[in-house]
């Protein structure tokens, strides 16, 4: 039998520290669901999803009950829809979105991701039609998440696409005006988008993947925060940063193991390949489940104060080191998330003025996934939004990492107002954007930003 | 022809008890299959299973152990098994759960939770308790193989915890294994 202290430590982790498996995401290949007409393709897609994921939610419940660990979200990711809908027009893509929404509701999953396209080098006419469909597709559906990859370290950044997307983000927000622009919270722009990420809004089932695969996202900011508090209060002598990093590593190991256990059992029952565990620290708006809180515990009195980036770099690295050994295969995004609206302490720091866009941008250089869930004034122009996204994409391209932008221009709201989407999407004061309207000439160029040179990395 | 014999020993703890007892078994040409020992507040108890040649009797073993020059008194029970026990290592049952119960110390806590297990056809595989200040902690390793609905037991266990003033948590044993051991 295990030692009593080990058992009690594990019980503590599950019961008091918000340990859960944040998501089990089933990736489903839809490439062969393509038929001649939109209607027939929709039917084929719905059949495929109910065939593959019919028992998915129930199986997650079963394993969750058996092990006594909550599985918060059951999700599906699909082949980027622009591949499946090649040649369809804007209306066709809206129909595909509706079909996916019905399929997701039918099998009982929380969200379906992969209403996506990959345009990092060039756009086809299909891709343009897909982009035009986004405002309607995201406003007439409940469970659909969209993402688009506009850049990569190999191919550079597609600035023509980026130019369109600033306006798309505004249009999506406008189409969901009565929900404060909530549609924009379901759309994310990527550089170096991974094909096996289980987290939303950016989950896709990459074209390099097998027919069906399960990916797991663990959580754990709360668990790490509590373990650090215990460590700090238990020590009378001086605690050093390397000891703190070690504690984060060991805690992450345990958290990841729980995700690995759930993933393996669900995949075994369903007879589906187990893909990866994504090690990302994903906060929720729940008090005590915040990445911001960890920064605070580790020594900055205001989130965004000098030192925040350094702490985040250490946290992100320690999480990876602990998690990689705990899982057979690690993938997806695997880093700390700093989604403003989904993290109560980050949102508070935006409200107090401690955390500004530029500091957030700096922080995204050392963690995943980017400028995430940031509500901005609805009046900010499309070119400025494109330019904010371009900066974030450039960070990912040059640093060979995934970066993303999920900016929400909230219609009719301005700095000083607050917006709330409820549930896991959270709430935040509107963030101030400085230098609005000063990037028009840059965005006006269009074309492509060439891929960076891969040697002389200094 | 061989036979299985179970030997149980209690004694004030001291170095050398296991060496003494297994020495006696060795001299009688016995083969030790498995041994378990535990020490509680300086008092030792051990149980072991060994196989002997057919002509060795319980009396022979008791007589040999009696010759040990032990500074502590050894209370020994020897029992010949009529039907052989399966000594191949079988591991834990699939439905092995760990229950922790913590609360203010009062009499009857272990009796209460063990009766709960008995009433629900749950076998206790292992049980450890600790007391710090006035807080009592019980950790039970349970076999729920004969239980149909884990959810039902979990619910009943929560109700029991409420009635008896205990914070009770039940988790599958694999969870403790994977979070504390390297192997998976």
Distance between the termini of chain B: 41 Å
Give the beta-strand count of chain A.
Answer: 13
Write down the oligomeric state: heterodimer
Q: What count of structural domains of chain B?
A: 2
CATH architecture of the largest domain in chain B: 2-Layer Sandwich
Write the layout of secondary structure elements.
The complex is a heterodimer of chains A (458) and B (184).
Chain A: H1 4-16, E1 21-28, H2 38-53, H3 56-67, E2 71-78, H4 81-84, H5 90-107, E3 111-118, H6 125-139, E4 144-152, E5 156-158, H7 159-175, E6 187-191, E7 212-218, H8 221-234, H9 241-270, E8 273-278, H10 291-297, H11 308-326, H12 344-352, H13 357-363, E9 370-377, H14 382-398, E10 403-410, E11 418-420, E12 427-429, H15 440-444, E13 448-449
Parallel strand pairs in A: 1-2, 2-3, 3-4, 4-6, 7-8, 9-10
Antiparallel strand pairs in A: 1-7, 4-5, 5-13, 6-10, 11-12
Chain B: E1 2-12, H1 17-27, E2 31-40, E3 43-53, H2 58-66, E4 75-80, E5 96-104, H3 109-119, E6 123-132, E7 135-143, H4 150-164, E8 166-172, H5 173-180
Antiparallel strand pairs in B: 1-3, 1-4, 2-3, 5-7, 5-8, 6-7
Describe this structure in words.
The complex is a heterodimer of chains A (458) and B (184). By secondary structure, chain A is α/β, with parallel strands linked by helices. Helices cover 44% and strands 17% of the residues of chain A. In chain A, the strands form 2 sheets. In chain A, strands 1, 2, 3, 4, 5, 6, 7, 8, 9, 10 and 13 form an 11-stranded mixed sheet that branches. Chain A has a two-stranded antiparallel ribbon with strand order 11-12. Chain A is globular. The mean pLDDT of chain B is 92. With 184 residues, chain B is an alpha+beta fold. In chain B, a hairpin with a 2-residue loop joins strand 6 (123-132) and strand 7. Chain B contains 5 helices and 8 strands. Chain B folds into 2 domains: 2-80, 2-Layer Sandwich (Alpha-Beta Plaits); 96-180, Alpha-Beta Plaits (2-Layer Sandwich). The chains are: A alpha/beta (458), B alpha+beta (184). Chains A and B meet through helix 1, helix 3 and helix 9 of A and strand 6, strand 7, helix 4, strand 8 and helix 5 of B.
């Amino acid at each position: 039998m295990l030692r009593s202290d080990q058992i009690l430590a594990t019980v503590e982790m599950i019961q008091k520290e918000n340990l859960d498996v944040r998501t089990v995401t089933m990736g489903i290949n839809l490439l062969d669901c393509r038929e001649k007409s939109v209607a027939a393709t929709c039917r084929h897609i719905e059949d495929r999803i109910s065939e593959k994921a019919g028992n998915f939610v129930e199986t997650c419940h079963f394993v969750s009950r058996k092990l006594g660990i909550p599985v918060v979200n059951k999700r599906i990711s699909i082949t980027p829809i622009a591949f499946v809908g090649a040649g369809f027009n804007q209306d066709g893509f809206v129909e595909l979105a509706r079909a996916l929404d019905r399929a997701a509701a039918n099998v009982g999953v929380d969200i379906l991701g992969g209403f996506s396209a990959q345009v990092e080098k060039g756009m086809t006419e299909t891709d343009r039609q897909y982009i035009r469909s986004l405002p309607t597709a995201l406003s007439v559906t409940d469970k659909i998440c969209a993402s688009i990859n506009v850049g990569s370290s190999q191919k550079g950044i597609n600035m023509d696409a980026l130019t369109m997307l600033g306006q798309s983000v505004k249009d999506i927000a406008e189409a969901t005006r009565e929900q404060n622009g909530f549609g924009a919270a379901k759309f994310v722009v990527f550089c170096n988008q991974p094909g096996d990420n289980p987290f939303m809004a950016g989950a896709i089932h990459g074209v390099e993947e097998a027919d069906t695969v399960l990916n797991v996202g663990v959580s754990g900011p709360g668990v790490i925060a509590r373990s650090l508090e215990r460590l700090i209060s238990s020590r009378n002598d001086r605690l050093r940063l390397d000891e703190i990093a070690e504690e984060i590593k060991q805690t992450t190991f345990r958290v990841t193991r729980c995700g690995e256990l759930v993933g393996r059992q669900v995949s075994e029952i369903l007879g589906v390949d187990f893909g990866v565990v994504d090690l990302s620290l994903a906060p929720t708006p729940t008090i005590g489940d915040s990445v911001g809180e960890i920064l605070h515990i580790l020594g900055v009195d205001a989130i965004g104060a000098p030192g925040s980036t350094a702490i985040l770099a250490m946290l992100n690295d320690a999480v990876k080191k602990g998690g990689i050994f705990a899982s057979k295969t690690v993938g997806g995004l695997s880093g700390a998330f700093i989604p403003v609206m989904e993290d109560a302490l980050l949102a508070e720091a935006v409200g107090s003025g401690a955390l500004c866009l530029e500091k957030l941008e700096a922080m995204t250089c050392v963690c995943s996934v980017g400028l995430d869930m940031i509500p901005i004034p609805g009046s900010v122009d499309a070119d400025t939004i494109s330019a904010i996204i371009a900066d974030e994409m450039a960070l990912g391209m040059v640093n060979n990492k995934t970066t993303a932008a999920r900016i929400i221009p909230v219609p009719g709201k301005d700095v000083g107002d607050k917006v709330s989407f409820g549930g896991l999407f959270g709430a935040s004061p509107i963030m101030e954007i400085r230098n609005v309207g000063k990037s028009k000439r840059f965005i006006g160029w269009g074309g492509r930003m060439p891929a960076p040179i891969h040697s002389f990395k200094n | 022809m061989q036979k299985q014999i179970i030997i149980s020993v209690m004694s004030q703890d001291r170095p050398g008890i296991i060496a003494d007892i297994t020495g006696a078994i060795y001299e009688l040409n016995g083969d030790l299959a498995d041994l378990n020992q535990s020490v509680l507040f300086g008092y030792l108890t051990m149980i072991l299973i060994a196989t002997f040649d057919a002509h060795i009797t319980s009396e022979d073993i008791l007589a040999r152990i009696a010759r040990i020059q032990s500074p502590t008194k050894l209370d020994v029970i020897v029992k010949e098994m009529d039907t052989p026990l399966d000594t191949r290592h079988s591991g834990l049952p699939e439905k092995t759960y760990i229950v922790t119960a913590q609360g203010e110390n009062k009499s009857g806590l272990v009796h209460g939770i063990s009766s709960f297990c008995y009433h629900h056809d749950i076998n206790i595989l292992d049980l450890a308790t600790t007391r710090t200040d006035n807080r009592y902690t019980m950790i039970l390793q349970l076999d729920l193989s004969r239980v149909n609905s884990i959810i039902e037991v979990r619910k009943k266990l929560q109700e029991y915890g409420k009635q008896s003033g205990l914070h009770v948590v039940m988790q599958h044993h694999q969870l403790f294994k994977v979070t504390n051991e390297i192997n998976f």
